[in-house]
Amino acid sequence: MRKPISITIEADNLLWLKAQAAATSKGSVSDVVDRLVRDARLEGRTGAIRSVVGTVDLPHGDLDRADGYVRSLFDRSLSRPMLVKERPPAATRAGRGRGRKRRG
């Protein structure tokens, strides 16, 4: 999902971004900036952290409740009746009249 943001950059960089955008099919500065950031992140060209591990702090009790809640969702789902239809195996031609000549 894309989110609108506001950034402030040097005039020369904005001119460059607009030229890059004009060279694309959409002509969108947002698309160019998004591509540049994605490429930099994926290629590791920055010293920035690439992982979100450890960025969220949850109270220990919340994790225990979440585990029980998710487990109850599975239990409820498995307790519901389920309609299952099996199809018979498709008829094959193997073995039918092999090697026989048709009389006609």
User: Which class best fits the helix and strand makeup?
Assistant: mainly alpha
| Strand percent estimate | under 5%
Largest beta-sheet characterization: none
User: What is the string of SSEs from the N terminus onward?
Assistant: HHH
What is the terminal separation in angstroms? 67 Å
Identify low-pLDDT runs: none
Q: What Rg is obtained from the alpha carbons, in whole angstroms?
A: 30 Å
Shape annotation: flat
Mean pLDDT: 79
SS elements, strand count: 0
Q: What share of residues is helical?
A: 40-55%
- Number of H/I helices: 3
Describe the fold and architecture.
The protein is an all-alpha fold and 104 residues long. It has a domain of 49 residues. It is built from three helices and no strands. Helix 1 packs across helix 2. The longest helix is centred in the C-terminal third of the chain and has 20 residues. The protein is flat. The termini are far apart.
